[in-house]
Every structure is written in C-alpha cells, then in structure tokens.
Design goal:
The protein is α/β, with parallel strands linked by helices and 265 residues long. The chain has 10 helices and 10 strands. A hairpin with a 2-residue loop joins strand 9 and strand 10.
C-alpha cells in the first residue's frame, strides 16, 4: 500500500523492499504509532523526521522486531519484507535481524579488537569455513565502511581506542559482515562532530548501491542531503511522505511546512 502523500514517487520505477500496512503500535495504553502505511524502496535512503517522541524510532525497531523484547506491547496491521509478513509465526527472528540490521545512536563497538568486531557475526552464524575467508570479509567490510586505510595497521588493537566517528563506522562494518539487505540507522550521527558526521553521510550514499537504508534523524540538513525520500511524523502519525526535494521545498501539509521551517519541534 502506497501512502496517498507519495504523489511524486513513481512505483513503476521503484521496488518496494518493505511495505507497512495500517500499523498501530501500543506501549501499554500509549498509542505510539497510528495507522502507518508506507513503502520503503530498494536501494534508496529513506529519512524519518519529526520531533522527539513522535514514533520514528519505534517504527525503526518494529521493522526488525526489536520491540519484541519490550513487555506489554500490542501491534496491529502488518510489515512486509520482500512480500512476507515479519510477524509470520514461521519467521526466524534471528535471521530477520541479520537481514535487517540496526546501527544505534551511540557507537557500541565490542570491547575487543577491530578484527574481532568485524569477524564476530560471521563466526557465530557459521558463515565461513576458513580463516582466510573471514580475513577477506574483514578487509572488504572495512573498505566498504571507508575505514580500511585508517585501521589496517590497527586490526589487533581495541576498537574502543578509535575515535567516535571511527567507532560508528566499525559498527557499520560489523553489520555489513553478516550480509544484511536493509540498514536501519537510528540517529547515527547525533553523538559525532560535523566532520565525522559528513563521513557517515558519504558512507550512506555509497552504501545505497547495495543496501536499502532507513535513517531516523533530527537534522533537517542531513535528511535533505542524504535521503531520496522523507517521511514526516507527528504524534505517532505519518503526516507526509514524499521525494525529499519536494517535501522540503513544496510540502503539501501545513504541519510539515511548520516543522521544517522551525516553527515547532
């Protein structure tokens, strides 16, 4: 189901990777997401914007079922990944989270070496049969994350010794090592300085050739720079969803106009 506000997106030229249909989400009595319908397109960057507490991160965590870990949650509606409901009783949730990975707001590298951070996922998933295969994967993922030249001589050093921006890219490389298809990024630059943030933005734009990316951000300029499509959320509702350029220049809803011009939020 395509949101009515997607007036400028041609579905024939875009492949829906994730389709969310009439999704309602409750934390106890708190109605956090209200009748959300949205298509997330393959090999695009979709930004979710809106004030704090409007449901952006809740939606992100619903997509890979991280909210399963929270008690007293109720969900209705559906989320389809490649046409199949993620709530299907036969779905392997571990496999789902491998295919739809998450990068968090604060970098969280494991307290071990740079090499072991990247090798961890392939090892626990028994993805490779030899050390040389893991070595190749570590190098490839660090290159994909734009880090290889910076850390190739530090593979045996603790990842915690790296800068904040490098740690965030280590987390992205660690995610790439298990061969995901969708990258969920929950304010990945909020704890980084402007230079490190720009490196993450450049990385996202490079990665979208191979991955579908959804980013939650409070930074309007960042959303405008990196995303193809943007959804504006307010009080748990999807107010508007459109091609980013159109949403920021000619929004169809007054609430969107007010938010992006700084009248509230």
């Amino acid at each position: 189901m395509v949101s009515d506000s997607l007036k400028n997106i041609n579905p024939e030229q875009n492949i829906s990777e994730i389709t969310i249909n009439q999704l309602d989400f409750y934390y106890g009595d708190c109605h956090a997401l209200k009748n959300i319908s949205i298509d997330i397109y393959k090999n695009k960057i979709t930004a979710l914007i809106g004030p704090s507490g409007c449901g952006k991160s809740t939606l992100l965590r619903t997509i890979n079922r991280m909210n399963d870990l929270i008690p007293n949650v109720k969900i209705s509606g559906d989320v389809l990944f490649k046409g199949r409901s993620i709530f299907d009783p036969d779905i392997d949730v571990v496999e789902l989270r491998k295919k739809i990975g998450m990068v968090f707001q604060k970098p969280n590298p494991f307290p071990t070496t740079v090499y072991n951070n990247i090798a961890f996922g392939p090892r626990i998933h028994n993805m490779f049969s030899s050390k040389s295969e893991i070595d190749d994967t570590v190098e490839q993922c660090l290159k994909a994350a734009g880090l290889w030249l910076e850390v190739k001589d530090k593979l045996k050093k603790s990842a915690l010794e790296l800068s904040g921006g490098q740690q965030q890219r280590i987390c992205i490389a660690r995610l790439l090592a298990v061969k995901p298809e969708v990258l969920l990024m929950d304010e990945p630059c909020s704890s980084l300085d402007p230079i490190a943030s720009l490196k993450i933005e450049e990385l996202m734009m490079n990665l979208k050739k191979d991955y579908t990316i959804i980013i939650v951000t409070h930074n309007m300029q960042q959303a405008a720079r990196v995303s193809d499509n943007t959804g504006f959320f307010l009080s748990g509702e999807l107010i508007e969803y459109d091609i980013t350029e159109h949403l920021f220049t000619t929004p169809s809803k007054k609430e969107t106009q007010d938010y992006i011009t700084g009248r509230f939020g």
